[in-house]
UniProtKB/TrEMBL annotation:
Belongs to the UPF0045 family. InterPro entries: MTH1187/YkoF-like (IPR029756), Thiamine_BP (IPR002767), UPF0045_domain (IPR051614). This is Thiamine-binding protein domain-containing protein. Residues 4-95 form the Thiamine-binding protein domain. It comes from the Bacteria. One of its GO terms (cellular component) is cytosol. It holds the Pfam family Thiamine_BP. It comes from Corynebacterium alimapuense.
Length: 103
């Protein structure tokens, strides 16, 4: 499965706390998980089995909760048992079609 998620403080515990610091810590947790992942301006994507992906999302959310009394979490899942490397394959399929290849 692939999870696309965004986690950020809805507010910070102290006026001088930076949202980017909290988000960076969440991304660090994802990257250190060892699961395939990508981060862009809006979401972080993580690929793996249900329990391992959800554990990473929870740990990333807990990291943000450590600096904020309120957290916003947006989550979207593509659940496709028996498939792997969909993080890259889905993009390759689109790129192939854009280049006039496979249909």
């Amino acid at each position: 499965m692939i999870i696309a998620f965004s986690v950020a403080p809805a507010t910070t515990a102290t006026p001088d706390a930076e949202m980017a610091d909290a988000v960076s810590e969440a991304v660090r947790i994802v990257r250190e998980s060892g699961l395939p992942n990508e981060t862009n301006a809006m979401f972080t994507l993580v690929e793996g089995e249900w329990d391992e992906v959800m554990a990473v999302v929870k740990a990333a959310t807990d990291a943000v909760l450590a600096v904020s009394p309120r957290v916003s979490l947006v989550l979207k899942a593509d659940i496709r048992p028996g498939h792997s490397d969909q993080l890259h394959q889905k993009v390759r399929s689109v790129e192939d079609r854009l280049e006039g290849g496979e249909r």
